[in-house]
Amino acid sequence: MNLPVWIARRYFFSRRKRSFISWLSTLSMLGVGVGTMALVVVLSVFNGMEELNRQIFKTFEADMTISPKEGKRFLASPALLTKLRQTPGVHLLTSVAQDNALARYGNGTTVIKLKGVDDNYLQRQQLDSALLEGKLLLRRDKVNYAIVAEGVRSDLSISSIDILTPLEILYPQSGQTLSVLNPDAFNRQALTVSGVFFIESRYDNFVLAPLNVARELFGYKPDEVTSLEVQLQPGTNEIAAQKTLQDVVGENLLVKSRDDLNVDLYRAIYIEKLFVALTLSFIILVASINIFFSLSMLVIEKKSDIQILYALGATRKMVRWIFLTEGAIIALTGAFAGLVLGIGLCVAQKEYGLVGMGMVSSIIDAYPVRLDIRDIVMTTVLIIFITVLTSWFPAQRAANSQQ
Questions:
Q1: Is the pLDDT of residue 24 over 80?
Q2: In a 3-state reduction of DSSP, which class is residue 100?
């Protein structure tokens, strides 16, 4: 066995009495362990929240969205649609006309986001798991239907089994003076509610309707859309597909992935995760300062031993390495225990949902977690850096104590 490691182990494990230095070392281990465990758990929770948001977006948004660089609508010619459908990796192409509108049902009114979609929208089967009641139906027997979000249903007290009360959608006419007293100021469409869905609160004001209804309501031309949504075939490389689609649509249109559409949210999660990681790292550093004091006092206590080692031919490098190893034993023992406990808590949370969200309207019951090997590696590297930082000066002092 390496002599400096053996001596460091003897100093740590073979003390004849529990001195203040021993208790300080134990406190250092506990501090590093608790800090490491907290860092692993918190970073895993942030990873879980990011993954949860991706699952939420995947339930409603397409893999790729084509939108204009300027303005809010563009002309989607039949030639462009044909090229896009023939692009490798494209499974479904959905034309979308979307804008804010006013919804009226019975005596209630509310502002909604009306999303007009092609008939093939329901073939994506994204809303199948989000349906609360009714059915997913947009058009049948020349009757136009609407699928409303839970928030709209709650605001207007909509009943999906009431086929006699229509959902009336109003949109201001272009060039008309906006006035609720002027009946000609709004375009109007009446729809029958077929179903109610719930995904997450950010989608609570959406109403899905047939594309021709939305175009007529907004005053769009037959080929005008606000966006084209592309659903890719399973296993398609999204980065390559995005580049290919961008080449097809040209410079006047933008192709954005699902992550691109929500880049601000992901950036906010990343920044918050970074600041929390820095805060917990600082706490671990503060806890590791006890290692500095513990080793400093150990150097004083073992001064005679150090002199004997020098008399026996030990070098400064060997003495320095003894106390660096002592600090490593203290820190890495606590870090290893913290990693094991942190990983164990994350696994238990994922399997059994130990800590709930505490929100009735949440789509999941417990906090989501996802372990990432990069976080484990980063935490390990951080502990090693802190160990060297806090152990170096006492070890150097021991190495310089030769008379």
A1: no
A2: strand
